[in-house]
Write a structure and sequence with these properties.
three-stranded antiparallel sheet, 2 domains, 9 helices, Transferase(Phosphotransferase), domain 1
């Protein structure tokens, strides 16, 4: 990333606003000039070596600085730094249309939202055509949608027939939704085929079957907000992956050990001993019975002896 987001020539870079195939747009502030802050557009390093690309970029920057319209992002200043041209544009708090599409590139807009966007783009093309300027490279990276759903166009800078933008506008329309009505399909076919009804962007705007609507503008705003939240999440994940300090995990209190059983005094822990007196009484009784039995036997033997002696 240029300048490691610290600085680029007289500009201090605060972040990346958008990226295209040919250029990167930074959130930048011109050092030493109070209040001069905008979107700094610079060619990618791989493109700077191409002389044709450098000249085309410079021409677009100069021509864009001459256009004034609410639907067109104005160019505030231009210059060259180390052989690379740059353009400082008014900073718009918006999301490029390119970032509103899902990663798989499938269209996502309703017909109302798509027609509202096409209407705004045609307003910008019409204003440029009055100044004898065409866009020349109209694509989703040059169409900006702010969080309120308002649309602005950037990247103007070629002289020529205003109808030369119609093919790009056709491709743009086909990318917005797969569910155009029959009237809108016919209108798009007319752009693509060079219908004589469309002498310029103003004619195409007047013939647009589905006009811009408040509901369409709100739908565009919701899409821009979703894209902004997604971008913020990606930046947060990027910072985390680069070792940025993250919020410390909450420290939980250690689990208390289970309470130990209360130590009871010895006299409480031991079962009381049973006395031996009941066993002693039983033995005495048994001995008595044995004595009685033995005495009885002796007495019986004595009687038998006496009787035998007498006989």
């Amino acid at each position: 990333m240029r300048g490691e987001l610290q600085g680029l020539g007289p500009f201090r870079l605060a972040g990346v606003l958008g990226e295209g195939e040919r250029a990167i747009v930074y959130d930048a502030e011109r050092e030493g000039v109070t209040g001069v802050r905008g979107a700094l557009k610079v060619l990618r390093d791989a493109v700077v070596a191409d002389e044709y690309e450098r000249e085309a970029f410079s021409q677009r920057a100069r021509v864009g600085g001459s256009l004034e319209h609410p639907r067109i992002v104005p160019v505030l200043d231009t210059g060259v730094l180390d052989g690379a041209p740059w353009a400082l544009l008014e900073r718009v708090d918006a999301v490029a249309l390119l970032d509103l599409f899902p990663k798989r590139g499938r269209p996502r807009f309703s017909e109302e939202a798509g027609a509202t966007l096409l209407s705004a783009v045609l307003e910008a093309l019409s204003a440029a055509a009055e100044a004898g300027v065409v866009h020349g490279r109209l694509d989703p990276s040059n169409v900006l949608v702010d969080l309120d759903g308002d649309v602005r166009v950037t990247g103007f800078g070629a002289d020529g027939d205003p109808r030369s933008d119609f093919l790009d506008l056709t491709r743009l329309a086909q990318s917005l939704t797969p569910n155009w009505s029959a009237e809108m399909d016919s209108w798009i076919d007319g752009l693509q085929d060079g219908d004589d009804r469309f002498a310029g962007p103003a004619d195409a705007l007047a013939a647009l079957p589905v006009p811009a609507s408040e509901e369409g503008r709100k739908a565009l705003g919701r899409a821009a907000k979703r894209a902004r939240r997604k971008r913020e999440r990606e930046l947060a994940e990027e910072r985390a992956s680069q070792g940025a300090p993250s919020a410390p995990e909450p420290v939980s209190e250690p689990a208390s050990p289970p309470p130990k059983p209360e130590r009871r005094p010895p006299e409480a822990r031991r079962a009381p001993r049973r006395t031996k007196e009941p066993r002693l009484d039983s033995a005495i009784r048994q001995a008595r019975w044995v004595g009685y039995l033995c005495g009885g036997l002796l007495l019986a033997g004595l009687v038998i002896e006496i009787l035998g002696f007498s006989g």
